Structure prediction request, 179 residues.
Amino acid sequence: MSSIPKNIFLVGLMGAGKSTVGRVLAKRLGKTFIDSDHEIEKRCGVKIPTIFEMEGEEGFRKRESVVIKDLSAFENIVLATGGGSILLPENREYLHNNGYVIYLRANPHELWIRTRNDKGRPLLQTADPQGKFKELFEIRDPLYSSIAHHTIETGKPNVNQLTNKLVMQLELNDEKSTS
Prediction:
């Protein structure tokens, strides 16, 4: 009997590949893929930048926390979380206690390169988006690390290579737990 975790939660900064890797990983493992940001937009009926504009980051984080709590109670999912979802202690607890948390870690410069033309990221609408990534990394890296069951660097490998590494890691954990 397989003991691959019923839920896999992907955390990391924006641009780390959570949604892209999550879709491929879910398909490989026969799980349902959910993106928490898309779920928030679906429930609110508006895009995330609009929520930030109307309610600020604090209002958005409250909405995000409700969604994280709801989604972390599901079974047989791969969940791509928003980059800031780990800011609230209750979200870190929901994620860590209800699934296998994988931190997709990338350096701030690489993330800036990947996202520099994306206007749909409210936190990057600043005079110095590269500096913002450094700031976010310094704050969030320890939080991601504190709840992660596994960390993988997302620098050079492509999506399929990353997914293969993750599946191998999950199978390795599965073998350890059954021996």
User: Anything to note?
Assistant: The longest strand covers residues 100-105.
